[in-house]
Amino acid sequence: MRASIIGVGLIGGSIGLAARERLGAEVTGWDPSPAAVETACARGALDRGAGSLEAAVADAQVVFVAAPVGALAETVERVLRAIPPDCVVTDVGSTKRSVVAAVADPRFVGGHPLAGAETAGVEHARADLFQDAVWYLTPTETTTGTLFERLHRLLRELGAKPTAIDAATHDHMLAAVSHLPHVVANVLVAQAARALEDESEQLPATGPSFRDATRVAGANSAIWTDIYLANRDALIERIDDATRRLGEFRALLSAADADGVTAWNDAAREDRRRLLEAQLAGGTVHELRASVPNEPGVVARLALELGRAGVNITDMALYPAPNQAEGVVALWIAGDEPAERALALIAEQGFPVARA
Amino acid sequence: MRASIIGVGLIGGSIGLAARERLGAEVTGWDPSPAAVETACARGALDRGAGSLEAAVADAQVVFVAAPVGALAETVERVLRAIPPDCVVTDVGSTKRSVVAAVADPRFVGGHPLAGAETAGVEHARADLFQDAVWYLTPTETTTGTLFERLHRLLRELGAKPTAIDAATHDHMLAAVSHLPHVVANVLVAQAARALEDESEQLPATGPSFRDATRVAGANSAIWTDIYLANRDALIERIDDATRRLGEFRALLSAADADGVTAWNDAAREDRRRLLEAQLAGGTVHELRASVPNEPGVVARLALELGRAGVNITDMALYPAPNQAEGVVALWIAGDEPAERALALIAEQGFPVARA
């Protein structure tokens, strides 16, 4: 198997590592940055770097294009002009409609692995980045069946779960669960930073829930401006939906409708639980909260203890007290039995613990 | 010093523990739940429970009312009718205007400690819950000076940082940094749960950034319905502001204004940095991201290593890979020198690490 990778950052580099280790593939790569190619070779993500995009793909059987969303269509077209007829080309961009609409070639299949958005750079590449990760593929009516099948099989061998999806559905879904939350985080920090300007020079004090809610605020513009623009109609729909929902809650507030506010809030609690559960085979997600001294060693020991007992922590949050010496650790545990076990183990350590 | 506590949950119980341990106070308490009073006595948060609210406060020098926001004004009035003339009464509610407007008595000072919102129940009470915590006080022009001074001094002795603030400013600030983020989290889960209903039966796959953004969705209605309603005009202002900001971003998207989107996103990054820094004396907050195997032991060892080296982790987030076996840990470290030290220490452990 001869694979080519155009763009060797975190995703491209991880594909290279996995293809070499798991498929025994011969991997050639190219990147606008010669330093990235050098690092990728040194890390074993590439067998060799090529002098040009065209040289990198000249005799490939599969090409992965890991370029920024804004440059995808043009880069994929360049690749298509340079490859042999029996070669499949895919990309890893976070939005799919624009590239799928721009590239009509039957050898191209759009793709998007749900992995690795939190870091950048080939230094963070890992051969198992895609293990059990959903990897969306967006074939069209004109996609060559044998090439799609080859790509699908390759992704399985890389450890991923290839999942065919319509490009439009993909983009609408990502607008809801990723792009809108990023926009909203930006709005939250902007309004908070300015909320008190009329009354005081001081910035307001914020707590852990504000930090959680705004953690993705101001994510890397080099990536996100492209994503926002490529998916702008779907994102505008989500913005309009969110605006409508804010308006509905505003109306409940205006009417001082306590029952309505409670029902609205309880529905959100249920929605979050269902969304978390949909991610997991492990059953109902239980939220536990334990009061602990906020020494690094304590959370460490708790995590070790639960890990040793085979309890899988789905999600975790620390809420240090203002003095940083005490705090609450929230743990989300999937499955009734593991949650019971976690409760018992934490109590055995002498920490007050309860279901949230 | 004779102190009374009306409502012995997390906050009331912690006040009792701290008043007994740090002030040597004699603490009497009452709660609508006899079981809570019993637990509070067993935990040492009260010297004794009283048979009624009136009996609990009859010879008090200071009374803390820790009742739900919706019951505050009525409970405070009952207390004021039962106390001696030279007794100061305060509360711990999350919104301040309604109770301050309803209670004109010069012996009452509104209060709100920024502590302990993450758990409930006297089982989680701690004598040091308020150590170094901001404790807002909302005196008015009619507040008796000597009583305010007594309360202020008591709070200092409990370990807190009493901070006088206008009730309206307090409520506007909390609307921006706490109440609106809760509303927005609810909106995010509601739209995501329904976004795909037209196209599929399936709930969308969500990632760690969605979990972070919606962690407070559906917070306890028994507390939050009151908070939303008591602060509804300030919250409506924030909703309108957020709606306006969503509209501005929508306009940038509609116009496909890449420079505008980038500037908007970069401004949010800067706003979040300033808000985080405002919390801390430690200087600029640096965000580091390290790739680690997602075994509990690894994050534990990292935290222990940094703790041993005196590096204070301001905030922390885990982003497990879909396979739960690998992941990225994000660390926010305050101060240039500690951040450098953390980078070096993490690299020494053999993990790829970089500034975000």
Class from secondary-structure proportions of chain A: alpha/beta
> Taking Cα atoms only, what radius of gyration of chain A do you get, to the nearest Å?
24 Å
Number of domains of chain A: 3
For the largest interface in this structure, which chains are involved and how many residues does each contribute?
A-B, 131 and 131 residues
CATH homologous superfamily (4th level) name of the largest domain in chain A: NAD(P)-binding Rossmann-like Domain
Question: How do the helices and strands line up, and which of them pair or pack?
Answer:
Two copies of one chain form a homodimer.
Chain A: E1 2-6, H1 10-23, E2 26-30, H2 34-42, E3 48-49, H3 53-57, E4 62-65, H4 72-82, E5 88-91, H5 97-102, E6 108-113, E7 134-138, H6 145-157, E8 161-164, H7 167-195, H8 208-213, H9 221-230, H10 232-254, H11 258-278, E9 285-293, H12 296-308, E10 313-320, E11 326-334, H13 336-348, E12 353-355
Parallel strand pairs in A: 1-2, 1-4, 2-3, 4-5, 5-6, 7-8
Antiparallel strand pairs in A: 6-7, 9-11, 9-12, 10-11
Structural commentary:
- The structure is a homodimer of 356-residue chains.
- In chain A, helix 7 crosses helix 10.
- In chain A, strand 7, helix 6 and strand 8 form a beta-alpha-beta unit.
- Chain A has three domains: 164 residues, NAD(P)-binding Rossmann-like Domain (Rossmann fold, 3-Layer(aba) Sandwich), CATH 3.40.50.720; 88 residues, 6-phosphogluconate dehydrogenase C-terminal like domain (6-phosphogluconate dehydrogenase C-terminal fold, Orthogonal Bundle), CATH 1.10.3660; 78 residues, ACT domain (Alpha-Beta Plaits, 2-Layer Sandwich).
- Chain A is built from 13 helices and twelve strands.
- Chain A is globular and about 65 Å long.
- The first copy, chain A, is of the alpha/beta class.
- Chain A has an eight-stranded mixed sheet, sandwiched between helices. A four-stranded antiparallel sheet of chain A has the order 10-11-9-12.
- The interface between A and B is large, with 131 and 131 residues.
- Chains A, B: One of its GO terms (biological process) is tyrosine biosynthetic process.
- Chains A, B: Pathway: Amino-acid biosynthesis; L-tyrosine biosynthesis; (4-hydroxyphenyl)pyruvate from prephenate (NAD(+) route): step 1/1.
- Chains A, B: Keywords: Amino-acid biosynthesis, Aromatic amino acid biosynthesis, NAD, Oxidoreductase, Tyrosine biosynthesis.
